[in-house]
Amino acid sequence: MKRYIRSAIASIHDESGDTKRDLAKSDYTSARDLAALSQDSDRYVRRDVASNPNLPLDARKKLIEEDHELATFPAIYHGDLSPEYLDELARRSDGTRYAQAVAQHRNTRPETLDWIADNYNASYVLSGVAGNKNTSPETLAKLATSRDYHLRQRVAYNPHTPIDVLKKLAKDRSSVQVRRVANFTLERLGEI
């Protein structure tokens, strides 16, 4: 199988977009070939290679820096990136395009998540903060007061939300979904 992929990648310039996309997704494609695919002119190939966990770090960072289309989110989200690099991405002046993926990343530090929550208003970004297991209890408590019931629901689902906040959300007056999720989480934590 590996030999076939190696020979297939050699003639990649003749291949259809679907074949390149299959190679970009494959666990058997070499790191060198994934790096080559990350520079493909087809944005869907770049997106698919960005989602491949075997993409080398330098090629992943290059995609993050240069690709302003579909590949940025999966390149960040699926990469094993350092907390320092994630913090740098979130704090850039053009950080809006990175913030959602950084907010959802498993390696993002609590301090970075706090900063994102204080500096971004977009619900899709704050939803990532609310759902991240690394978010501080103080930030979760702050997000729990949002008017956006979807955001309160994400806070209610996070098992790291303080119990007193979950109990308040379990009595949410404006959303039955928030109450249900908060009660579910309280039950999961053995508090009911």
What's the gist of this structure?
The protein contains 14 helices and no strands. It is mainly alpha-helical. The longest helix has 13 residues, at 176-188.
Instruction: Name the poorly predicted regions.
Output: none
From N to C, what is the helix and strand string?
HHHHHHHHHHHHHH
Mean pLDDT: 89
Morphology call: elongated
Beta strand %: under 5%
Q: What structural category do the secondary elements indicate? A: mainly alpha
- Number of strand elements: 0
Helix fraction by DSSP (H/I, runs of at least 4)? 55-70%
Main sheet: strands, sense, barrel: none
Whole-number tally of structural domains: 2
Rg (C-alpha, Å): 20 Å
Number of helices: 14
Report on the structure:
It is a single chain. Helices cover 64% and strands 0% of the residues. The chain has 14 helices and no strands. The mean pLDDT is 89. Helix 8 (96-104) packs parallel to helix 10 (123-131). The chain has helices at residues 2-10, 17-25, 31-37, 43-50, 57-66, 72-77, 83-91, 96-104, 110-119, 123-131, 137-143, 149-157, 163-169, 176-188. It folds into two domains: 1-80; 89-192, no CATH class. The chain is an all-alpha fold and 192 residues long. The longest helix has 13 residues, at 176-188.
